[in-house]
Amino acid sequence: MKMICTLFLFSLLFSSTYALDFCVGDVKGPESPAGYLCKPSAKVTVDDFVFTGLGIAGNTSNIIKAAVTPAFSAQFPGLNGLGISIGRLDIAVGGVIPFHTHPSASEVLLVLQGKICAGFVSSANTVYLQTLTKGDVMIFPQGLLHFQLNGGGTPAIAYVSFSDPSPGLQILDFALFANDLSSALVEATTFLDDAQVKKLKSVLGGTG
Q1: Is the distance from CB of 85 to CB of 162 less than 8 angstroms?
Q2: Dihedral (C-alpha) 41, 44, 46, 50: value to the nearest 10 degrees?
Q3: Can you give the pTM of this predicted structure?
Q4: What pLDDT digit, counting tens, does each position of 157-199 carry?
Q5: DSSP class of 136
Q6: 107 carries a ligand binding annotation
Q7: How far apart (Å, rounded) are the C-alpha atoms in residues 25 and 192?
Q8: What is the distance between the alpha carbons of residues 177 and 187, in angstroms, rounded to a whole number?
Q9: Residue 146 counted as an annotated binding residue
């Protein structure tokens, strides 16, 4: 009887472990800070664990001349709950990913093509800056302001990976100048004059 009970307990343990192997996100539902709810296992397919979009160049015909192709949990449901994600970064000549932060994740950047000047600023306002070439890797700690710009005369490509399936993004320039915060408040908090603030708001779509 003792042996039967032991085997039964092992069976329950194995079944529970197997059931928790993954939690493919139900991306049709809402996303919370903990991620998406799990899709029913009967509806999970191999396609949930495969993403094929990183071989396609992003559209860099925009104001920053750059593009990010995300493979986060919203686009890649199999990542849900696994603590990882990836994306492709395309930066045209003269392009830049402006100062931004990822509130939920640290970032690793791997250069595939071209030159990328990249850096971040610590909470002590120390600048860590490097020009990266093919095969170089740089890390950006979670929550710190960082940027990437094309450092050469040819298009640059990189893969970026994150320590969260939904790393979040806040771009500093857009946070300041692409909303309806009054120009007077922006001027007071940035030490910019009225003409500069209103010019940037007009460029980035802000009002006020």
Answers
A1: yes
A2: -120
A3: 0.85
A4: 999 999 999 999 999 999 999 989 899 999 999 899 999 989 9
A5: -
A6: yes
A7: 44
A8: 11
A9: yes
Instruction: Give the integer Cα–Cα distance in Å for 137 and 18.
Output: 35
Correct CATH for 43-167 of 2.60.120.10, 3.20.20.140, 3.30.450.20, 3.40.50.1950: 2.60.120.10
Residue 158 bridge partners (DSSP): 89, 111
Residue 102 annotated as binding? yes
Rg (CA), the chain: 22
Q: Kind of pairing, strands 107-113 and 137-140?
A: antiparallel
Strand, coil or helix: 13: helix
Both tokens of 140, joined, read 């950006």
CATH 2.60.120.10 residue spans of the chain: 43-167
Strand pairing category for 146-150 and 116-121 = antiparallel
| Residue 5 backbone phi and psi in degrees, to 5 | -65, -40
